[in-house]
Write a structure and sequence with these properties.
Oligomer: single chain
Largest sheet: 4 strands, antiparallel
Structural class: alpha+beta
Distance between the termini: 23 Å
Shape: globular
Radius of gyration: 15 Å
Number of helices: 3
Length: about 160
């Protein structure tokens, strides 16, 4: 079987960042998939499921309610390896195009307090698996260490 493109990226040199993973055409619309890499693969510990789950609930809610991008959000969800998330947007974008959106998003995650949206037995299949303090931590860390002052090397996959 032919390997899929995301398995051809050298995860030994991949840094936390914002990468265009792929672009697909659905009908007349380009869908851009972003690799939002929060932790460094195979170097530092992965995120636990509770904070991944919390970030997913917060980000999905924030993004789908965003005034400018809300109608273009196709999907936001975790990578199976728990080192980051995929964001799918309707439209042809580059990483730099969504940096303001991601800065807003990760500031929201960093600062969020209160009940996590959708964290109830009625709304979620695993509502007890949440960790808001760790989600706040990862939101702040990604904003501070990656998004603030992001460089080109953190927006283009390593060769």
């Amino acid at each position: 079987m032919k390997p899929i493109a995301s398995f051809t990226i050298n995860h030994l040199t991949l840094l936390p960042g914002v990468y265009v993973s792929r672009k697909d055409t659905v009908g007349d619309t380009v869908v851009t998939t972003f690799d939002i890499r929060i932790t460094r693969p195979n170097t530092e510990p992965v995120m636990n499921t509770a904070e991944v789950h919390t970030i997913e609930h917060l980000a999905a809610t924030f993004l789908r309610n965003h005034a400018e991008f809300g109608s273009r959000i196709v999907y936001f969800g975790p990578m199976g390896c728990r080192t980051g998330f995929y964001l799918l947007l309707a439209g042809d974008y580059e990483s730099a195009d969504i940096l303001p959106l991601l800065r807003e998003l990760f500031a929201f995650i960093r600062d969020y307090q209160g009940e996590v949206p959708g964290a109830s037995a009625v709304a979620c299949g695993n509502y007890l698996d949440m960790n808001l303090p760790m989600a706040n931590y990862y939101g702040g860390r990604f904003l501070r260490e990656v998004l603030d002052g992001i460089t080109e090397e953190r927006m283009k996959y390593p060769e």
